[in-house]
Amino acid sequence: MNPTRSQLEKVIETLQNYNSGVICLGENPSIDSVAAATSLYLGLTQLGKNVSIASSTAIESEIVGTEKIQSELTTSGDNLVISFPYTEGSIDKVDYFIQNDKFNVVVTPRPGTPALDSKVVNFSTAGGTVEFIIVIGVSSLRSLGVLYTENLELFKQTKIINIDRSLTNAYFGTANFVNRNVSSLSELALTILNTMNVEIDKEIATNLYAGVLDATKTFSTPSTNASTFETSASLLKAGAKKPGQHTQMDQTQSLQVNQKKSFERQGAKPIKSVERAPMIGSIEGDDSISEDEEDDTWLKPKIFKPGTSELG
Asked: In the chain, what are the domains?
C-alpha cells in the first residue's frame, strides 16, 4: 500500500493542530532513519514546534541534530532541570536561598567527597505535554524497545504519526505515511517538510542527502528510481554537502601545506658550476683536414705528447 493524498493530509493536519511532540527512533536505527528524524526535528523547530527526539539506543553520528537525541519520551516545558554526575552518598544536602532577587541552589557534598565541578552541570527544561508522537522506520511499536514498553499508556492516549517504507509495516498510527516503493525514509521526510513550507536549509538538505545515500547504497539498490535522483538534485541545489566532503578537502589542504613545508625545509641544493678544461693546442687554421678526416679525428683518442703542446 502506498500513501494517498488523504494520508499525507492527516499527517500535516496533526502537525498543524498540535504543538508539542516527540520523534521516536527504533532500536539500532539506520543512518536514513536518523537523517529523517533529525531533519523533521530541525524543520518543526523552525516552525516553532516544541519537539524532541528519543531512541532507546545510544547514537553517535555526524548528522546534525544527533546530539539532541535523548533516551526518554519528554518534551521541554516550564520546569527547569539541573543535572550533574552523581555517586551514591556523595551529596549531604540540597538547599536554596534568595539574595538580590536571585534564586540560589546550594548543593553541599558529603564530607570526604569531591566538590561538585560547575563545568559538568547541565540545565534543561521538562514538564511539557506530549501531544503527538512521530515514529520513524519501524514496522511495529514494539520495535521502539523500552520507549514503547515503558510508556504504554502514553502511546494509547497520543496521536501517532507512522512514517515507514517497510513491507511488513502494521499501520499502527493515527496517521500512516507509509510508502513501500520509495527508496528512502528521507524522501518521505522531505515530502512532509515541503508540504508544510519548511525552508530546506543546508543542514536539513545535508542530513536528508546522507539518508538517501545510505538507504540506496549510493544509488545502487533496486528501489532507486527517477524520483530518487530528483530528490537528490533538489537537496544538492539547497546546499547539501556530500558525506566526508569537508574531511577530504581538509586532508588535501593539509597534504599540500605539509608538502610545501617539507620542500622549504629541505631547500633546493645549488647546482655546482662546471668549468671547462682549457684546450691544449689548437686545431684551428688547418684547412687541409677534409670533412671525412675531421670526423675520423673526433673518433680517435686524444694523446698528449710530452714536451710539446700538440695532441696526437
From this structure: 5-77+127-246 (3.90.1640.10), 85-120 (no CATH)
